[in-house]
Amino acid sequence: MTEESIYKYINKLLVENPKLPYVFQDLYIAGRRDVSYVLWEDELLFSLKEKLAMELMEQIVICTKRQSPTKKLRQMLVEKPIFLYLIKLNSRIKLYLSEKLIDEKQLYSLGIKLATQSTMGEEVKLGMLLLGFFENDIVRQIMKTLGFHSELTLYAVEASKNFKNHNEFLFELLQNTCGFGKLAALTLFEPVKPEQKKWLFEQGAINNVAPNLSAIMCLEKADMAVFYQNLILSKENFSKLSYLLAYASESSNIKRFEQSLVLVEKYLQDFPTYAKSFLDLAGVVMFAKSIASYEHQDDVDSEQENGWTGNTEKHISNLCQEIIKRPKWQKIVLDELSSPQEQTSLIVSILERLKMVPPFEEFIPLLQRDLFDMNLLKHFLIEHPQAYLRDVLTYLYHVLPEEVLSEEPQVIAEDEVGDEYKPDLWLIFLLKALRKAKKNEEALFLRCLTARFPDVRREAIQALRVFKTEWSAKVIVALEQAYEKEPVKSIRKRLSRLMGKKNAGREKEQRYLDITENKVTPSPFDICILKTKVAGTFFRDLMVVEGQVEAGDILYLMREPENKYDQKAIIVTTEDGYVLGYVPKADNNMPASLLDEGEKLYAVLLSDNLEQGKPEIQIMLSKKPKQVGKIIQLPSLGNEVRYN
Fold first, then answer.
1. CA-based angle 91:189:176, to the nearest 5?
2. CATH of residue 587
């Protein structure tokens, strides 16, 4: 923390770097915690927000009289930051002023001091909120200087609610911020003037952070409806619409937007004339992806939402397919890979849609932007491990931070996992992929036994279990050393059992059944009839199937009417018949009756880890449709769906 105030520090950097948005802030980090919480994660009880705002206001009253922050105030700001109850605090300040419970001049003076003289970020944010009630030229200048920094934009937005020209001030913030700051300003901004609407269309969604959310907000603003209806596309603005459609459709169905049909029809009509870039292709690919396939029923063409009909969807979908399959786009996509301009998530989505699997080397420019991009992790190790496994292994060998494997084994809670652990997550999925591909990288597995991240150690143990018949003499020594260092009890247990050490007391059951007649092929028409847990897993040796069963896997159900404890007993097994346990007695009556009546049932594993409590499952009723001519009859739904 610099010794000079945050306000003076920003002004000093402005002299050295006068460009807007501020180039001296971290474009991807500044404001992330506060804005993310307010927009997506706010789960604090209303009553608790009221209480926190009231308690802080009591301290503000004391500080106003002293004209300096108290130790208690600073402690409260650290322990319960303002973003947790931002709106309630702003309302509370307004209440105290209207009821004359606080001296206005003293409060203004305190706000100036906190905003311009403090070295503590939370105090500056509080000072900005206080100044929001005293609009003048000085306050507006302070608010802009601070608010143009994305770490503080949220507080300029909230404070400016009390400004005479609140919307105009938001527009100024929008034009001069980026990242999470721009996102915060965009949330409340209303484009009521022609120049504001034009800017919002051309620049509003362009953001280095969450461009999909920015694009959605730009499409959803009520004031933009007439603008989009009257929009005439040109060479200059075509790619602006490409950006909006591509990013909005990336995480949302295009049909949900009121003007979507108008925009898509304009876009496709002018596509042959103006389209030439990767972004133009992305617009077509992403909204085509978001349009559900249409199953034509007789001659009915019913309207769905925002003017879309089944025939419209089908027509637009066909146009999109014609565009997408043109060979020229392959080169344009590869050019984007070599010099990426768009978000990695969008680029990967286009690759998937075009079924392109370029060589690993083509992704180097993307990896240079983020060595451990999670979208690339998914593309390499989940979607296409057969193509990229060896390349990723080599890549991680060169770029994996030393601390991932050199630090002592740690206990890391789920809520502690931040960006600093992205390399560890890559390593986890690499180990999974190696295990599934039956690639024995013993040296890597042994190093990972003492990695800092618990799940890396778990995956290393699972991999070693798979290749147990190929162990060298080094493995047992490494397992014993890892056992001595391991701080997590459940992982110590896995290490112990992998070394062949017996548990004191009762031995766990290992049991296989012939489930040939009980196997079921899942169908999209299957119905979930029950969510429950597998009982009795404590008595089974689940280490036998460790690493072989994962969330989403199919499990099979077998009746055991001869069970002396429960005549309705249903055994739950893996795909190869290994017994995991039973459907709980409290839940097995209905599925047992269905099985006895000859219905086909199976289960889907919902839990990631079999040994963490009772694994959750959902029991599915197989309902494969009976085909009659050109009509699919859904047995228990009583309706008909035609197919082509």
1. 105
2. 3.30.70.2330
